[in-house]
Amino acid sequence: MYVKSYKDLIVWKKSIDLVEEIYKITKRLPKSETYGLSSQMQRAAIAIPSNIAEGSKRTTKEYSQFLSIAYGSAAELETQLILIRRIYPNLDIKKAESLLEEILKMLSVMLQKMKSLTPNP
Predict the structure, then answer these.
(1) Helix intervals (H) in the chain
(2) Which residues contact 66 (CB under 8 A, 6 or more apart)?
(3) In a domain, 53, yes or no
(4) Is 1 domain-assigned?
(5) How much is the CA Rg of the chain, to the nearest whole Å?
(6) Which CATH number goes with the domain that contains 13?
(7) What secondary structure letter does DSSP report for 36?
(8) How many alpha carbons lie under 13 Å from residue 41 in its C-beta half-sphere?
(9) Vertex 83: Cα angle to 45 and 108 (nearest 5)
(10) pLDDT digit string (tens) for 74-120?
(11) Does residue 121 belong to any structural domain of this protein?
(12) What is the pLDDT, as a whole number, of residue 3?
């Protein structure tokens, strides 16, 4: 299937949903986390759809690199959610965890497909 725009990608749409969810979570964190976990989580979450979008406007090889960066940001966010679960166990982060799990799987599949499209030097 041909994709006209990155906005048509399910992984991009889900990552936008994840950003919204992360903002809801960080809003419920104590003020002391404003420059700590809140800021880090928001940046990591925003980096996922941003890198998917930017990479889609590049060459196949570059797109693969941007997807890899998005995957790294997703792993970073996963670590931060683990910390949230441990430090603030009363916060409900299930929706964010579920979205993130789906996104990680989708990015992994995309990276594998991109790898098969990129010629080896």
Answers:
(1) 10-27, 37-56, 60-87, 94-117
(2) 51, 52, 54, 55, 56, 58
(3) yes
(4) no
(5) 15
(6) 1.20.1440.60
(7) T
(8) 28
(9) 45
(10) 999 999 999 999 999 999 999 999 999 999 999 999 999 988 876 66
(11) no
(12) 65
Tokens at 115, concatenated: 């790898």
Could you tell me how far CA 99 lies from the centroid of its own chain? Answer: 9
Closest CA to 67 of 106, 100, 98: 106
Looking at per-residue confidence, does 19 or 120 come out higher? 19
**Residue 114: which of 72, 73, 59 has the closest Cα?**
59
pLDDT computed for residue 1 by the predictor: 44
36-54 pLDDT, tens digit each: 999 999 999 999 999 999 9
Coil, helix or strand for 6? helix
Q: How many domains does the chain have?
A: 1
